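re: that chain from earlier
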Amino acid sequence: MPLTDFHIQGYRSVRDVWLKLQNINVIIGPNGCGKTNLYRGIHLIAAASTGSFSKALADEGGMPSSLWAGKRRTSEPVAMQLSVRLDDYRYSLVCGLAGKVRRTETFARDPFVLKEEVFLLKNGQKSSLLKRTKQSVTARTSDGKRADYTLQIQDNESVFSGLRDPHAFPELFALREEFRAWRFYHNFRTDVGSPVRSPHVPLFTPVLSHDGHDLASAVASIIEAGQADLFNEMVEIAFPGSSIFTAETRGLLNLYMSMPGFARPFSIAELSDGTLQYLCLLAALLSLRAPPLMVLNEPESSLHRDLLESLAKLVVHASKDTQIWLTTHSRELADYILDMSGYEPVELEKVEGETRLVGVGLGGYKEDDDETQSS
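^ sequence. v structure.
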């Protein structure tokens, strides 16, 4: 299910932004304009589907740190809203401060889910699949009836975290599994102590882990699954005359790179930060199990500008099977992707502390389902 709309309100520097999404979405702008906040917002949707929503917010300072940081209008709620549309489904989650609801001091930085909804949008009709308020949760079952959702759900987590019966709520389950299949890569550690640089026990790896610690296994899996020609082509484009191979020693798999002019190959521990970053992106974008959405946050970090064209080719190639969301500082990378794919970048700016879309205005776009009839 392609992601067509993303609406975020009241989150950090984002007062109100609505994005219309395409197959390749390049989000560009200067430092501090809010690119990472949009990335975090879409990541929070995925976290809600796995029961880690409150932890994800705690990792960035808790709910007070996540709320809109600017001046608030009198009628403006002290709450954060995330909303997405995928094909015929729209999901939204609204949360505020737990301390104001539970009157607690110990967990005052915890989020409290104020409202959560899932709608089916079809044939001009908008029908409710899930409606959650502070008092109750009702959901539509497989036979079309509305039922009280009686399973216990923490008030700081999504209803998705408590789903147990796929037969009773098939549409909610399908939506949750879609969110869980999204993949996020937020830079790879390339320092001396990085797990990427260590050999590991070989394991067939169709999907590179988020931190890249299984890079050697992911590369070996791509090659052994019959994708060696494409992999080697992308290595050749980036590093002419070089080749990548893996080898097992004493039960551990290591990755090596042979380069022209050198008498021996270099192990993964010896590669430069930029080379290692590129190889991780290569393994991620040539994944044997393509996700419905892949989100890359500033993938150009540590890369020499000579590698940006190769990275753009990788992104455009991956977009044949995967929807791409990419945030970047690099106008050059955005231009390469535009030239190769025809997709214009989305440019952000900060106006009086507020993240906005350049040339669109306050609030960005609006969703098409506003004109549908509710049932």
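The radius of gyration is 22 Å.
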